[in-house]
From TrEMBL:
GO terms, molecular function: chromatin binding; DNA replication origin binding; single-stranded DNA binding
Protein name: Cell division cycle protein 45
Location of region: Disordered: 134-228
GO CC terms, sorted: DNA replication preinitiation complex
Biased composition (Acidic residues): 144-170, 178-193
InterPro entries noted in UniProt: CDC45 (IPR003874)
Record's subcellular location: Nucleus
Native species: Tieghemostelium lacteum
UniProt-listed GO biological process terms: cell division; DNA replication initiation; double-strand break repair via break-induced replication; mitotic DNA replication preinitiation complex assembly
Keywords on record: Cell cycle, Cell division, DNA replication, Nucleus
Biased composition (Basic residues): 213-228
Compositional bias (Basic and acidic residues): 194-212
Keyword set includes Cell division: yes
Amino acid sequence: MVLTSDNKFSEIYERIKSDSLQGVESILILVAKDCDSIAAFKILAEILKSDSISYGVKPVSGFEDLQKVNELLENDEIKSIILINCGGAINLIETLTNVNDQFFYIIDSHRPFHQNNIDGENTLVIDDGTYEEDQNIVNGDTGEYIEEESFEEDEEEEEEEEEEEEEDNSDSDKENEDKNEDEDSFDEFLDDDYDKKKEKKEEKERQREEKKKEKKEKKRKRVMKKKKSFVVGGRQSKQVERSYYGKSAASLMYKLSIVLQKHQLEGLLWYAILGLTDQIIHERITIEQYQEQFQEYKSQVLNQYPTEDEQLQNYDSYVGDKIQPIDDFRFMLYRHWNLYESLYNSRYISCKLKLWKANGRYLLETLFAMMGIPLDQTKQQYVSMDTNYKANIKQQLEFHARKFGLDQLYYNSFIKRYESCKEEISASDTVYAVTALMESDNLESDGTTDDEIWEQNFWEAYDALSDRNINILKIGIEQSKLLQKEITRQVASMIEKRIVILSGPFRYAFITERSDLKFFIHPLALTKLGLYMMDAFLAMNKQQKPFLIGALNEKKNNYLIVGLSSTQKMDIQTNEFGKHFRKAARITGATIKYQSFDTSVIEIAKLDMPKFIEQLHGSLIS
């Protein structure tokens, strides 16, 4: 069954409480391998502890780990199983076969939900309220998605794309004409009619922008219409399979804490913010969805924590950790790095300036010069920079950055000030650090299995969110910087060596050099590289196409593959690769394994790769 009403959260929690046994771990919590999942688990753990309820925890990285949970289910004392970001989209009835009387509670941001989980008597899918609106579900009999797109819609899309292309060309011509007019003579600025001409030009610009917005909205509605088509009760309609994400699991757990009036427990709001930040960093939601939830959390933050003005008026000094909403820079980890490296390795800046070229690096140094910051200062640790230069960074960037096409340098975020060490760490820095800790490279450790290593990494990442373990978080920040430098280097190398292959409807590239492999045999690291590469192609005026990025795991003799359908430059964050992967595997006989609970992330044997790619090409064309 599916829960869509927040006011029933208390009923669910009361059921979990009533099924719990005093002094016995009757609750088993399964937690996926990402920052949102850890944040959601942190919230749930604090709620359970506040009621003295014991629980057991098992991290799960993928489908195989979930199957191993069957051994734990033989324990009759386990009554409730809570799955965080690891159960909604797969058939739990077929996966967990040792179930007795246990009840499953699914808190999962992956969409769509599997129909058998929705229909199951012993399963409860806790939804974010979008299920009734969307109902993009899997066929319960076959586990496959029903697909029947009309050619009319395809033709309509093609016609609109042609119209857009024509209009873009027309706009470009007009822009050139406008530019020529502007350059004709400086005397125009002294002309009495200049203001009228300027107003007329601005009005034309507004009209062009409105037309573009209308087309975007029309396209968005059409995609949403396709997503909502499905088969239920024998009634057939159209559906396109697209995997996508709902609200973060941490946001659902935070809602539970509000319903139970436990949201004032220490750290809960910060964990909810981290869940949201994890989604935007890994591009699981749109910028619009992020902004909507940001405003909700901003209100919560302003209610819980006094502003600096309020503190001054009340003459009270707030004691303890403090969260504040901020307009943060879009260059990563700059508080813990130097300004040059931060800008150079940030995807947005790098792609805008094309920093893989010598001219791009010249532009970056020119920007610093125009800002009046000496190059040696940009290469100092940010905390050690001359305060005069540091204080003027935002003002100088606002004045000069637009000349370089850098018109989206800020985004809404949050920062946490730690009372214990007087340090400031932003939500994005924390997510980067926690993710790096989970995917750190320890594969050369002697006598330790891969499963043991990643579980150790999971618990390190979990501990890093504790205020008492800020040193672990700092280790994660250093690992994240190292990874980001490698991603930037790899993008430059892929462009220079031209290893990205255009295969009709999509692009693909594989990393096989031994020195590079250790960084990219992890799903989220490979995802970051793929998204960076897609933006680089857009920066080079290449057509937007789905991108498949793979890394050879020599130890397993297979490839880890991530399929990416779009970046945040697209209106809707959906991914169709899961369907095409299954189809290609079925036709070629290749065995694929799911490395995470995202169907667009798989492992495939090295020998199967050539025929798999060939079939994938055919599948995407058809």
